[in-house]
Specification:
The complex is a heterodimer of chains A (283) and B (267).
Chain A: H1 6-32, H2 49-56, H3 58-90, H4 94-109, H5 112-123, H6 128-135, H7 149-174, H8 178-185, H9 190-201, H10 203-218, H11 221-228, H12 235-244, H13 248-273, H14 275-282
Helix pairs in contact in A: 1-13, 3-7, 3-10, 4-7, 5-7, 5-11, 7-10, 7-11, 8-9, 10-13, 10-14, 12-13
Chain B: H1 6-34, H2 51-58, H3 60-91, H4 96-111, H5 114-128, H6 132-158, H7 161-169, H8 174-203, H9 208-211, H10 219-230, H11 234-258, H12 260-266
The chains are: A mainly alpha (283), B mainly alpha (267).
């Protein structure tokens, strides 16, 4: 049916994606290749200086390193906590599994600024954690929990954890249980069965959860700002600061450094975990 | 699971309790704090009051931010779902390299770092002189479109093509077939796509961060700037609870109209 008037269906959405997604991103790249200007958005001359300056500046390299470090810790925690939870959810009976997935999905629908504020209310000097510890007489003076890299890690990890759990749980729930039964019937211990059968078969879920968590960590400006404060800035904070300082070419170059990190990481995960290979054989 | 060890079961149980506590508790705290009678949040709360909600709706900034967020979500979800539905109908039966390429193009805004999209749109808008409201609306459309596209695509692919062919062989033109056969059959996908696009727009931060202007701020951005410049006061808890309540209502609507299974499968 669609073939008869197909191109009329395609034209509006395709035009939207091109004009409001492809064009602005290409334009941003174009701006990143120009010198800054005080009167215009960018100067006329083409240059690679924005990138060269960033990658030579130890300040930005430190920020990039810190960004990758924070992302790595969040990713590690999400995997270590998320995998057993996903397993727990995956083996529930269907109706209960659906409710568990809904309970994981609901927080993802609440705006991240609200979820970050929940952590601020817990961790600030007059927050729930400090007042509770004081009432229990475990501490005399409030602890400085907010505005630390750990606060960013804990809050962002819990905000993104449902993505990891849902991704892995969906793969595990679709997995054919007979593979595990076969391994055990052949004498493999539960641990061996897990390491050699279940874990490899769940790599598609691990890969998609890992990618989601990493990509969302990179652009989580609001959470990073509210919990990290001015001292724990990450790459995304630098993009925002450059924009508010009207340094358009620098902001553009930083944005593409962030995009490059995202692309390299995606390529790495796909090459290492090869999720497509598993999907072909597991079903 | 058949042969898993007792230790494995214990690890899974503990991890699940810890994870759900860490995920749910910060949201619960916000809701509890919103009903606090005091100037400062005490836990456990000493009483119950609606004063912070009164304060929230009494603040001009907050009220207009809430109104703008609802307007934007309604309009952008509608536009995004119409566009997503068109794309999904086009791609539902198409195989091959071009189909796959178009599909990833339509889904790309889902995984593309939205902060970059925000900066890119801001620069484009500055260059062409886009008004603030239109700019925000279009940005929310781009962010919401993949949700409409994805849910409708799933519905359209599950559709039996014989039904559309039957409509056409009985003399219905393509448009009549679309409105009398195809749309009535895929409407659960269309509706849940719309609701997802609404929810995404209503909580959107990363593009709105750059695209809101003086006097035109969305609720999430208003909450963010209030937290940054005036500290965490309980009116923020009330604003957040309003945000949460609206999503609870929407999820209940999805459950009623299209069923829970569609929500948990949609992601």
């Amino acid at each position: 049916m669609t073939a008869k008037y197909g191109w009329f269906l395609l034209a509006p959405p395709l035009a939207t994606v091109c004009v409001l997604f492809v064009v602005p991103v290409v334009y941003l790249f174009w701006v990143s290749l120009h010198a800054p200007s005080t009167s215009e958005l960018y100067a006329a001359s083409l240059t690679l200086h924005n990138y060269v300056d960033l990658l030579r500046d130890s300040f930005y390299l430190t920020i990039i390193g810190r960004t990758l470090g924070v992302a790595a810790v969040i990713l590690g925690l999400c995997l270590v906590i998320g995998y057993p939870v996903a397993y727990f959810v995956a083996v529930l009976p269907p109706r209960r599994r659906m409710l568990a997935l809904l309970l994981l999905l609901f927080p993802l629908m609440v705006s991240n600024v609200v979820r970050a504020y929940g952590w601020v209310a817990l961790l600030e000097r007059q927050g729930v954690v400090n007042t509770t510890l004081r009432d229990l007489r475990w501490i005399d003076a409030p602890l400085d929990l907010l505005y630390t890299p750990s606060a960013v890690v804990v809050a962002l990890m819990t905000i993104l954890l449902p993505y990891m759990v849902i991704s892995i749980a969906n793969t595990l729930a679709a997995l054919d249980r007979r593979y595990e039964e076969a391994a055990q019937a052949l004498g493999a211990s539960p641990l061996r069965t897990f390491v050699h059968v279940t874990l490899p078969l769940s790599t598609p879920g691990i890969a998609s959860g890992t990618l989601l968590v990493f990509l969302l960590t990179l652009s989580a400006y609001v959470t990073i700002t509210l919990l990290g404060g001015p001292r724990s800035k990450l790459l995304v904070s630098m993009i925002y600061d450059s924009v508010t300082a009207f340094q358009w070419p620098r902001a553009a170059a930083l944005a593409f450094v962030l995009l490059a990190l995202a692309l390299v990481f995606t390529a790495l995960i796909v090459a290492l975990l090869r999720p497509g290979r598993v999907q072909g054989t597991a079903r | 699971m058949t042969g898993s060890s007792r230790a494995g079961a214990a690890i899974r149980g503990v991890a699940t309790i810890v994870a759900f506590a860490l995920i749910v508790f910060p949201i619960l705290i916000v809701v509890v704090a919103a009903f606090s009678p005091n100037d400062y949040f005490q836990f456990p709360p000493p009483g119950f009051s609606l004063r912070w909600f009164a304060e929230f709706f009494g603040l001009e900034n907050m009220r207009s931010a809430f109104a703008l967020s609802v307007e934007l979500a309604l309009a952008s979800a509608t536009i995004a779902t119409v566009l997503g539905t068109l794309a999904a109908l086009f791609l539902a039966r198409r195989r091959g390299a071009i189909g796959a390429l178009l599909q990833s193009l339509f889904l790309a805004p889902l995984v593309f770092p939205t902060i970059i999209l925000g900066v890119a749109l801001l620069l484009l808008y500055k260059t062409i002189g886009m008004p603030v409201f239109a700019g925000l609306l279009l940005a929310h459309c781009v962010v919401g479109m993949p949700y409409g596209f994805r849910t409708v695509l799933a519905s359209a692919q599950a559709l039996d093509p014989a039904l559309e062919e039957a409509g056409q062989s009985l003399g219905a033109g393509p448009l009549r077939t679309l409105f009398l056969v195809t749309l009535p059959l895929i409407w659960p996908g269309v509706l849940s796509g719309w609701l997802f696009a609404f929810i995404v727009s209503f909580g959107e931060l990363n593009t709105a961060l750059f695209l809101t202007g003086p006097g035109l701020t969305t609720l999430p951005i208003e909450i963010f700037s209030y937290l940054q410049f005036q500290g965490s006061q309980l009116v923020i808890a009330a604003a957040s609870t309003v945000q949460i309540a609206l999503i609870v209502i929407l999820v209940a609507v999805i459950e009623r109209v299209v069923g829970l299974a569609r929500i948990t499968r949609a992601r």
